[in-house]
Amino acid sequence: MTAKILDGKAFAADIRQKVAAHVATLVDQGIQPGLAVVLVGEDPASQVYVRNKGIATTEVGMASFEHKLPVDVTQTDLYALIDKLNADPAVHGILVQFPVPGHLSERDIVARIDPAKDVDGLSVVNAGLLASGQRAMVSCTPLGCLMLLRDTLGPLAGMEAVVIGRSNLVGKPMAQLLLRDSCTVTVAHSRTRDLAATVGRADIVIAAVGRAQMVPASWIKPGATVIDVGINRLPAPEKGEGKTRLVGDVDFAAVKEVAGAITPVPGGVGPLTIACLLANTVTATCRMNGLPEPEGLTA
Hints:
Number of strands: 11
CATH superfamily of the largest domain: NAD(P)-binding Rossmann-like Domain
Oligomer: single chain
Structural class: alpha/beta
Strand content: 15-25%
CATH topology of the largest domain: Rossmann fold
């Protein structure tokens, strides 16, 4: 058996097409979704991420608002900007690009954002709403994984799922989303006894640990669907001195010979994150205006 390779780039493009179609419908009603992104400092990687988000936002017909603040911005001034964006009816989603300089608290920044505009789904309010089965803004990466699983497998009810990793960003919300789709869910982690046997029961495996190629083929049930969220860099001397290559948390070459379907790294889950950020912004816009949520773009 050779697994079906799940093309995250193609699936993300499909999500963006659906977003653009829904944005066009909203614009016809006099509503243009708006996404505000705040960048503190001049971190090169963050600058690239913010630029890419701005391009993606405008490509689907949304309004893009970029706010660049100096590296030494005070907490008071940053909070004043967030408060202004919270109150701006043209802004439906707010994202502060992390990491931020050490004198600022990421947790406090997220708490300052209106939960209804927290399109990254990072606030404790949205985490609590998700955990209690209520309507929430959902973290983008888990949302993308859920959409991909539904597209690949159809209804997930009754399937056994194992999420390896218990982070607030991916592991915990992923488990909650799978529970909402009526999976039987186990959250595994570094203290799990007999991790191999636990993973080996799963119809769905979500690897989100941040350890390069830690999941071997021997752990995978034949025919299982494997979603690899990990992004790790390993030395690649064959590419030249100091060069690296990207790998996931799963031993892709070996696991693809056992699994039924698997995401590659790169090109799997990664492209879904910005696409789901756009989807969340449309969802937030619809909720704020008392309109039906966009079909196929929410949890």
